[in-house]
Each structure stands twice: as C-alpha cells, then as structure tokens.
Amino acid sequence: MDIRVDISNSGIDNSEIAGCRERAQAELKKLWTGELHFTGWVKDPYEFTDEMIDELQETAEKIRKDSKYFLVLGVGGSFMGAKAVIDLLEPEGDNNTKVIFAGYNFSGRYLHQIMNTIGDSDFSICVISKSGSTTETLSAYGIFKELMIRKYGPEETARRTYVVTEHKSSFLFDQASAEGARIFDLALDIGGRYSVLTPVGLLPVAVAGIDIRKIMEGARSLASEEAFKGEALDYSIVRNLFYEKGKKIEVFEFFDPYCAYFGEWLKQLFGESEGKDGKGLFPASLMFSRDLHSMGQFLQQGTQCFFETFITVDEPGEDVQIPDSAMKPFAGKTIEKINKCAVNGVADAHTKAGIPVVRISVPEMNANVLGQMLYFFETQCAVSALLSGVDPFNQPGVEAYKKEMRSYIEAL
User: Fold this and answer.
1) What is the pLDDT of residues 155-185, one digit of tens each?
2) What enzyme class is recorded for this protein (predicted)?
3) Are residues 272 and 237 in the same domain?
4) What ranges make up the beta strands (E) of 240-364?
5) Integer CA distances (angstroms), 188 to 112, 191, 200, 283, 391, in order
6) What is the CATH number of the domain that holds 210?
7) Which of 3, 183, 332, 336 could form a disulfide with 319 if both were Cys (CB 3.0 to 4.6 A apart)?
8) Is residue 142 packed enough to be buried (19+ CB in 10 Å), middle (13-18) or exposed (0-12)?
C-alpha cells in the first residue's frame, strides 16, 4: 500500500486504538462475507475483468474520434468520483476530447453556457443515474437530447448516447433500450457513492485519456481483507474515537487545488454513509493555502468541535522556481518546497493549539496510486460507519427533500 496514515498527532493513546482493532476487523469481514447489502463494490476491482476494461477503452476511443466534447450528465456519486479523477490525472494537450459535467444542478445559466461552449462542435452524451429517474440528470438529458436530435437526427443521436444505470425498468433504461442507445449496467448491489470504480466513473475517465487499467490495478492491490490487517484500519478507528470524545466535524484539508473535487467526493462518501440515526461526523473540506486566509483563524482559535485530516502528495511531479530577484526569503526557492513548509507549519501550529491532526499521504499521484486511494477511502468509510452502528449503504433521509421538491414541480 502506497498510502501512509500518521496518527501520532491525533492526541489519542495508542492503547485505545489497539483496543478497537479486533472489532474493526470484524466489521471489515462483514463487507467480504456478503451478509450486508450493497457490498458489490468490495470485490469489484478483481471481478471487473480485463475484457470489461477493454470494452470501456474501446468505447472511449470511439467517443474521442466522434466528439470534441463528451457531456456527462449525473449528480452525486454519478459524477463526483469521475470529476475528481479527471482533475487529478487528466493529461495535458489539445488532442483530448473535453469532458464536461452537467445534470447536477438546476442552473439554467450553467446549461446555457455549456450549449454555447459546444456550439456547432460534435459531441456525445453519457447519462448516469442508478435509479433511472434522477430529476437533475433527466431534466438536463431532455434538453441536450433534443439538441442532439436537431443536429444529428434520431439514429445518430442514439449512436452518440451512452447510459449507465441499473438493469431494470425505469424511465431512462426503458427509453434507452427502445432507442438503441449503448447501455452499461450498474450492478444492483453497488450504491452510487461507491461506484467510481465501475462504468459510472471509468467511462468518463477513459474518455479523458486516463489509463483506467492502472486505476483498477491500484484498487485491486487493496481489494482483500489481508490488505487491511494490523494498523491499516486505524484511520476508521480514530475517526470513531474522535466522535465518542465529542468531535462533530472532520475537516479534510488539501494543499493542491487539483484535489478540490476529491474533497467533494469524500464529503458525499462519508456524509451519506454516516449521517443517519442522529449520528455522524460532518465532513468539510478546505483548500490550503487559500483557505488559511479565511478559515485559518477559526481553525487556530475557534470552537474545537473538529479534527483535521491532511491529505497530501509528497512529490507532485511539477514545480516552478521563484527567481532570485523576488522578495526574501522566498527568492531562489521553489513553490512546492514552500508548499511543504505550509503543510508542516500548519500541522505544527494546530497541534500546539491542541487540535487533533491526522496526516494521510502518498508518495506521488498517478493512476495506480489514485486507484488505491479510492478503494482505501471507500473501505475506511464503510468500516467507520459500521463501527458507529449505522448502515453505510442506505440514505433514507434524502427521500424527504425529493418528495417535497417533486410536489412543487408537479404544481408548476
């Protein structure tokens, strides 16, 4: 495993953590035995065959040949994982089809700007909805499908339409089947927020020119009970111990703006998995050093209702040197070396103020390492939720707002 977890500044005694490891392993085992629902993601990295990867890559190559833009329509787990991966790994250059995400809000201005961006260019669409009836996604699909039909006609529109949904009757599945669109099945036992390592995330990522085989190899290297033996679940344990000691918020903190959507993905993963039955840590994310100039004061001296989780990359791969003519003491140094000073300085200052800090780091960022990170956090999240006594894989609370919203829509 290339992921390192440093809990030395958590303020929690090692004996307390060690006393929880046996229970954490027992909860991990439940993920592998099949006794829990929606655990298809656990074995997915090695059940997702090379032939399935080849099929996605061939489809992605066809899309790149056909289209300047690939419009991915989805919300929540149907887009955030793919967006996070593309932001972190997308290769530079003008030869790649541009992946655009929509269908995750009700902003007419946003959709209008996408239409202007696409203009007369060729484009294809991917519609992602586990239920096949997601309001934001299906609304946007109706708009862009009509645009495609006017541009290409019904037959070519179907050829340029890709759908990822459950293989069961729904508005989306039935319509796509009838019209001949390409459908990729989302397994019934994989929930949306745990679906990034399925066609939900892998197809958009492949279209962006990223090696999805290496992503899956990274995930596969952790897809075993053995990979999480010993101290490997200490992050899950520490999170629960913080909660028991009165902490209410986990602040994920990054030092690279390309990690922003990884933070968004983590917020949904943990928030929707743990926030139920009146329980759960509230997941927040901050981007440093930017947010040190807005939230740094609160973190240092505000209400200590939170703990911090730094997520950093040792060697980012690219750097820029500050010229000797610049102001001292920055002159002659590189931006990334200064960034590391920020990481260590913030950690030291907050630790001295009594704020618990967990540090999670990887040596570099590439497809294999990111595949490990995706699977690592999915596993840690599921175990953490089970340790707190809640079901990680349901989300009954979201139905309340959907019901109220739909009543307003139907009254329009």
Assistant:
1) 999 999 999 999 888 899 999 999 999 999 9
2) isomerase
3) yes
4) 249-254, 282-287, 306-315, 357-364
5) 34, 8, 13, 27, 17
6) 3.40.50.10490
7) 336
8) exposed
pLDDT digits (tens, 9 = 90+) for 181-234: 999 999 989 999 999 999 999 999 999 999 999 999 999 999 999 999 999 999
Residue type for position 322? I
Q: Largest Cα–Cα distance in the chain?
A: 67
Using DSSP's 3-state secondary structure scheme, residue 124 falls into: strand
In angstroms, rounded to a whole number, what is the distance separating the alpha carbons of residues 183 and 99?
19
Q: Are residues 11 and 87 in the same domain?
A: no
Per the CB < 8 A criterion, the answer to whether 196 and 265 are in contact is yes
Distance (Å, whole) CA 23 – CA 265: 27
Asked whether residue 29 falls in the same domain as residue 96, the answer is: no
pLDDT tens-digit map of 275-325: 999 999 999 999 999 999 999 999 999 999 999 999 999 998 889 999 888
Q: pTM of the entire structure? A: 0.95
Catalytic residues: 272, 293, 402
Q: How far apart are CA 76 and CA 264, in angstroms?
A: 9
